[in-house]
Specification:
This protein is α/β, with parallel strands linked by helices and 217 residues long. The chain is 49% helix and 15% strand. The protein contains 9 helices and 8 strands. A hairpin with a 5-residue loop joins β5 and β6. It binds adenosine-5'-diphosphate and adenosine monophosphate (AMP).
Length: 217
């Protein structure tokens, strides 16, 4: 299964990606996670990406596409993958199609997680991430039992710099202008499936997996 998840920041892509990827036994490839790992390790890629991430802008395609290309060449992605956060504009989508096409491959399906802007702002402003294990919590919807600490590993929770209110607004504009055209792009290719991404996490997972199985039949 070669699958792309799309949806606005805060739609729950990362949350759902882990369950969907494990259900279909494919690696989850999150460009946001790869960039953040590079930022925290202080690599040249991280230093370059950080300026754009902190501002809520997209990292330039030259940087992002090369990084994804390298990741897709790794052995675990040979039989399938779930992309979370890539592509983020039509140019990235076209390059991905070309990369796959050169190997005689194509995407199987693109799953859109549908939520409105108000819910996105609620989700992003309450998002807290564990510094140690990377698990994502929410202050209201999925709070840890001990404030500020991860239930899974005891690590410290932090708020992403790009989850501050003004940056959230800008990221939504970037999504509307640059990323949402992907819905039409993949719709025209007949690859798009949409699911309602509101309600409890488990319900969204169930709907997503059902939509993907329907597609696979
Ligand atoms: P994305 O990867 O699309 O940016 P995340 O998966 O990080 O989004 O989710 C954003 C925030 O919303 C997180 O704090 C997460 O815990 C919370 N969240 C995810 N799914 C739901 C849901 N179905 N209901 C309520 N909160 C959710
Ligand atoms: P995310 O974790 O998916 O919300 O991504 C966090 C940030 O990483 C984004 O706001 C961008 O700055 C950057 N980023 C992630 N994926 C991409 C991509 N495909 N293209 C450009 N920038 C990206």
């Amino acid at each position: 299964m070669r699958l792309v998840l799309v949806g606005p920041p805060g739609a729950g892509k990362g949350t759902q990606a882990q369950f969907i990827a494990s259900h279909f036994a494919v690696p989850k490839i999150s460009t946001g996670d790869i960039f953040r790992a590079n930022v925290s390790q202080g690599t040249p890629l991280g230093l370059e990406a950080r300026k754009f991430m902190d501002a809520g802008d997209l990292v330039p395609d030259e940087v992002t596409i090369g990084m994804v290309q390298d990741r897709l060449r790794e052995d675990d992605a040979a039989e399938g993958f779930l992309l979370d956060g890539f592509p983020r504009n039509v140019h990235q989508a076209e390059v991905l199609d070309e990369l796959l096409d050169r190997q005689g491959l194509r995407l199987d399906v693109v799953l859109e997680l549908v939520v409105d802007d108000e819910e996105v702002v609620r989700r992003l402003s309450g998002r807290r991430t564990c510094r140690q294990c990377g698990h994502v919590w929410h202050l209201d919807f999925d709070p840890p039992t001990r404030e500020g600490h991860c239930d899974r590993c005891g690590g410290e929770l932090f708020q992403r710099d790009d989850d501050r209110e003004d940056t959230i607004r800008h990221r939504l504009e970037v999504y509307a202008e640059q990323t949402s055209p992907l819905i039409g792009y993949y719709g025209d290719l007949g690859l798009l499936r949409g699911v309602d991404a509101t309600g409890p996490v488990e319900d969204v997972t169930e709907r997503a997996i059902a939509a993907l199985h329907r597609f696979g039949d």
